[in-house]
Amino acid sequence: MAKSSSPSSGPVKLVSWNVNGIRSALGKGFLEFVAGFGPDVLCLQETRAEPEQVGMDLNGYHAYWNPAQKKGYSGTALFSRLEPLSITTGPGGLLEDTEGRVITAEYPGLFLVNVYTPNAQRGLTRLEHRGQWDAAFLDYLRLLDGKKPVVFCGDLNVAHREIDLANPRANINNAGFTPRERQGFENILRAGFMDTFREFTGEGGHYTWWSMRKGVREKNIGWRIDYFCISARLRPRLKNAFILPAVLGSDHCPVVMELEGLD
Q1: Does the pLDDT at position 242 exceed 70?
Q2: Is the Cβ–Cβ distance between 143 and 152 less than 8 Å?
Q3: Catalytic one among 97, 145, 155, 226?
Q4: How far is CA 44 from the centre of its chain?
Q5: 24 contact partners, CB below 8 Å, separation of at least 6
Q6: Domains in the chain, start-ordered, CATH in brackets?
Q7: Other CB atoms closer than 10 Å to residue 74's CB: what's the count?
């Protein structure tokens, strides 16, 4: 376990990244990215491993894992330079989470929720479960927000608007772009949360996930499905939010938010 340490001077730098298997990412420059970019908090999704299977020690970070019960599937992890006041897993008992999809870190001034939202799957076989998840997750965010402001991040498996994917017309009613999923995200925004990236960037063409098919990423035929969102009352402390599309190692790229402090 790392010793407690304060984030570096200036805004706190938070990174969220679906690594599509942490063991795979370790062989594709993951540690080099962390060392070079130096996030104060790093939230990972789709880790697909138990911590003892990884043997990864990020010096200077407190490490927290929430693996799925099913081996090699789903899972989240959170690494923080500043030791949280508490760590909890799952969406507050509002919905059973056996897939390791949520880790919440409580800091003096806010809650940070790392989430890997279920995919509706090809043929929309999990769309009903996804709808139940979205409703329960929003209830969880509201519960936390009644105590402290909330930051939540992760792979939400939805492109909110047409500008959030390269080919919206071809993907209407496909997983990640169904009216139900898009409304689920809209409900979060209407409940008083903000999509931080859209506070700084209004145009399309910015994506966080690309199919593994040859040439797709090079042509930037992607989807923006990874987010940092905040309680609206944190807006004065928000300094920046951006995407790192040039960082490889996964079919997703990291997304970043800079915020004035965790207190």
Answers
A1: yes
A2: no
A3: 155
A4: 7
A5: 250
A6: 12-259 (3.60.10.10)
A7: 21
Known catalytic membership, residue 155: yes
Q: What is the C-alpha to C-alpha distance for residues 207 and 224, in angstroms, rounded to an integer?
A: 4
Question: Is the model more confident about 193 or about 7?
Answer: 193
Q: Rounded to an integer, what is the distance from CA 14 to the centroid of its chain?
A: 10
Helix/strand/coil percentages in the chain, nearest 5: 25, 25, 50
Residue 226 falls in which region: left (phi positive, over 0), alpha (psi -120 to 50) or beta = beta
Task: Determine the average pLDDT of the residues in 160-188.
Answer: 97
Written as one letter, the residue type at 26 is: L
Tens digit of each residue's pLDDT (9 = 90 or more) over 70-88: 999 999 999 999 999 999 9
Whole-number Å distance between alpha carbons of 154 and 131: 17
> Is 116 one of the annotated active-site residues of the chain?
yes
The one-letter amino acid at 83: E
How is residue 9 written in tokens? 């001077």
Q: Which of 61, 64, 107, 116 is catalytic?
A: 116
Find, among 247, 142, 151, the residue nearest to 194 by Cα. 151
Return the residue matching tokens 């139900």. Answer: 180
Helix axes 127-145, 179-190, angle to 10 degrees: 0
Q: Cα separation of 105 and 229, whole Å?
A: 15
